[in-house]
Amino acid sequence: MPVVTMTVNGKSVSGEVEGRTLLVNFIRDQLNLTGTHVGCDTSQCGACVVHIDGKAVKSCATLALQADGAEVTTIEGLAAGGDLHPVQRAFKEHHGLQCGFCTPGMIMTAVDMIRRKPELDEKTVREELEGNLCRCTGYHNIVKAILAASEEMRA
Amino acid sequence: MSEWGIGKPVRRREDDRFIRGRGQYTDDINRPNQTHAVFVRSPHAHALIRSIDLEEANAAPGVVAVFTGKDVAEDGLAGLICGWTVHSKDGSEMKAGGHPILAAEKVRYVGDHVALVIAETKAQALAAADLVLVDYEPLPAVSLKNSTEPGSAQVHEEAPGNLCFEWELGDKTATEEAFSKAARTVSIDLANNRLVPNAMEPRAAIGDYDAGRDEYTLWTTSQNPHVARLVLSAFVGVAPEHKLRVIAPDVGGGFGSKIFIYPEETACAWASKKIGRPIKWTADRSEAFLADAHGRDHLSHAELALDEDGKFLGLKVKTKANLGAYLSTFSAAVPTYLYGTLLSGQYDIPAIYVEVDGVYTTTSPVDAYRGAGRPEATYIVERIVETAARENGFDPAEIRRMNFVKTFPHQTPVIMNYDIGDFEASLDKALEVADYAGFPDRKEEAAKRGKLRGIGFSTYIEACGIAPSAAVGSLGAGVGLWESAEVQVAPTGKIEVFTGSHSHGQGHETTFAQLVSERTGLPLEDIEIIHGDTGRVQFGMGTYGSRSGAVGMSAIFKAIDKVEAKARKIAAQLMEAAEDDVVLENGAFTVKGTDKSLSWPEVTLAAYTGHGFDTAEIEPGLKESAFYDPLNFTFPSGCHICEIEIDPETGVTEIVNFTAIDDFGTIINPMIVEGQVHGGLVQGIGQALYEHGIYDEESGQLMTGSFMDYCMPRADNFPGFKLGFTPTVCPSNPMGMKGCGEAGAIGSPPAVINAITDALGIKDIPMPATPARVWAAIQNSATPKAA
Ligand code: FES
Ligand code: FES
């Protein structure tokens, strides 16, 4: 079986995978980083979003082998040195989560969104969330949280 | 009052783990030596099983065992049960067909469970499942439409004509009489579309049998682990109740779908003893679509009688409700006692009569989904009231106002006794917030942009905290509907609350602790809320029906009463004061009118040392429990106003304004309550505009079996919502709470459809009002009718 090596949350990791092993399974089952979730089997829900080389990617639609040599950040790695990322803080402050299942993917998507779009407005946030489903919050407070974090990070 | 007390928008404590990816959902748990399960599911809607050949599957790499219905039967396991027995008009009991864990003779829907394949890895189990050869003899599919037609195939032998029950409620004669006197009548045919709950966390289970202790542990995505344990032990016979521990850890949303006891977790628990290893099963989303219990799916005809002035005289409703292929845990209650009883809405309607035929079809079981029966009732009432207004030239707000129940308590003709409410207050506030007066100008302005603008109302009432136990028992419930709480105070004064409620997004770890903080003056970090584990919480009924505030927190309230009473007694003896003079305030016991005071930890430590008070009179220790059985349902109500714009070129409906003014009684945490409303609204608007579980009439195949085909509401489908509260304090529980979890999904669908039909000037459009349907409606109404 091929071996993949990548940096996950700042640590170099490697493991044997099958050619068909998805990145999300490598992360959850082999690295035991269970913050990244699986909510669907059609790449629709975004519960599995991680960063590969700083970009938000659905880890259920990426082979582990495709991330060979890459820098991967999962939700567990977002709070650098233990301090919450502004987006994490904003999700708590604005009640952007209920059951928490979509939350890791939402937060990872939001971090990338803010990086790409420094001038976020509500409409853009809503459109950018096209690939992330939440069944609990009605999105209202997720949008609020992302806008607040974006403002804070711009300041 | 503590800074974390009742009414404060305290930020959620559970968030700290979720935002860091440290939640622990069932699929995040792995047991040593664990195996993986995959279910072989029926590809047919309806078929006889001629034979099952396991030879190849058993020989496949990594396979540990393959079980079928024969093995289940050999071990003497019974099938799953429905916990509510409904009776037909003629007094006969509903006709419950068997609900096997694994189907042995016949499959009844696409996704029905045929075999359990257990292997070392999930991939191996999946591969082996493909090698299970089932020889089926297909039978015709049965749909909601054709179920009761003569010659339809029979889903269950026990239920001729596929009729499970023919239920009625209300006074038929009085209602007929009301219609005979009516100056005006209105009628409407309505479909309540089938929905797939789609909690974002798919269902999962781990069964783990400990041979040393002869004990089972089942981790499962459940809203009510104690009920699961009871059903699995008392009815299915997996293990005696005291030998089965059910743990529902972090659960990623439920919305009803995780109330029920399903074949999958049952099979994993049972089979873990057979193979002597833990078994893990996690649904993929496609399985969730096929095999989670769905919601709604009614066809109804309703008629409303009015007098000359628009006063309602009577309501008649006839409904055909799809129960799916098997009765699920509460499915018989949903289209009956959770539905017919809400048909009076917010109105004083002297006579109501409703008939419901519950029918079997070859579709996934249908059971409670956010709102459970109340959205279906509200849809009937609020659509027909709107129709009555339009057809008779009344303002939709004023016809409602004229007919509102205005004095309380109010006994409706359909069981419910409304204890309190102020329907005009929520209507008036909604009219103001939504700027109803300015609507004609906005409509005109929209028309200039080529858009069709419409406005729709829904003044809903619903019933939460279903109770009291004896009353629901007399209506057919197989369980009590109280809740339990145990408050344990440690010697250091820290508090652990064991609640029978379960949190899967509702934020109980915060709101329940707020109540304890309010009562004791302790900071939140000194209070722990424990739920979801039958090994730690003695018993509980779980979370559904928006019951955890009004029922679950009331139990905690009562348990704290007892803790406080005992602690005050101890404090009084410690301070040599009269018990009546001792008060608990801001975390200290003080003797009124003196400077004598003992802190909470000083008293709690004394409770455990047994020093300084008479232990012959007062037992040492500080731990109390309460079982709280509510006196009545609670009745949340409110007014939703939806404003939409339709692009006639595309048929796309845009929600431009949505106002929800609700009466939830006392609110513990407004931030969390608003979040519950937001989520409910999106599910309700999702039903009205996007979501539809469709089975093909001919083949019985689920046509909407993935997020590619089933339109889930997304962030860009909505504007921000305008919320407000007009509370009246519920008299039937100690804190005056009502329930907020489902109201959004109950009130909103008719508001949306009323807005669309208003914009288009048509009587009805079926839900979901997709662009295709709206566009077609525009084309039809634009075509001049043939002379
Ligand atoms: S799990 Fe990756 S998009 Fe749903
Ligand atoms: S918080 Fe539950 S799915 Fe988003």
Report on the architecture of this protein:
Chain A is an alpha+beta fold and 155 residues long. Helix content of chain A is 34%, strand content 15%. A five-stranded mixed β-sheet of chain A has the order 2-1-5-3-4, sandwiched between helices. In chain A, strand 3 and strand 4 form a beta hairpin. The radius of gyration of chain A is 15 Å and the shape is globular. In chain A, 59% of the residues are buried. Chain B folds into three domains: 31-139 and 201-252 and 258-291, Aldehyde oxidase/xanthine dehydrogenase, a/b hammerhead (Aldehyde Oxidoreductase, domain 3), CATH 3.90.1170.50; 298-466 and 632-779, Aldehyde oxidase/xanthine dehydrogenase, molybdopterin binding domain (Aldehyde Oxidoreductase, domain 4, 2-Layer Sandwich), CATH 3.30.365; 482-628, 2-Layer Sandwich (Aldehyde Oxidoreductase, domain 4). Chain B is built from 19 helices and 28 strands. The structure holds FE2/S2 (inorganic) cluster (2 copies).
Question: Which spans of chain B have pLDDT < 50 for at least 5 consecutive residues?
Answer: none
Q: What gap, in angstroms, lies between the N and C termini of chain B? A: 73 Å
| Morphology of chain A | globular
Q: What would CATH call the architecture of the largest domain in chain A?
A: Roll
Helical amount among residues of chain A, as a percent range? Answer: 25-40%
Order of helices and strands of chain A: EEHEEEHHHH
The percentage of residues in β strands of chain B lies in 15-25%
Q: What separation lies between the terminal Cα atoms of chain A? A: 48 Å
The CATH superfamily of the largest domain in chain B appears as Aldehyde oxidase/xanthine dehydrogenase, molybdopterin binding domain
- The coarse overall form of chain B would be globular
Largest sheet of chain B: 7 strands, mixed
| Mean pLDDT value of chain A | 97
Keywords (chain B): Molybdenum, Oxidoreductase
Protein name (chain B): Molybdopterin-binding aldehyde oxidase and xanthine dehydrogenase
Domain Aldehyde oxidase/xanthine dehydrogenase a/b hammerhead (chain B): 20-140
InterPro entries (chain B): Ald_Oxase/Xan_DH_a/b, Ald_Oxase/Xan_DH_a/b_sf, Ald_Oxase/xanthine_DH-like, AldOxase/xan_DH_MoCoBD1, AldOxase/xan_DH_MoCoBD2, AldOxase/xan_DH_Mopterin-bd_sf
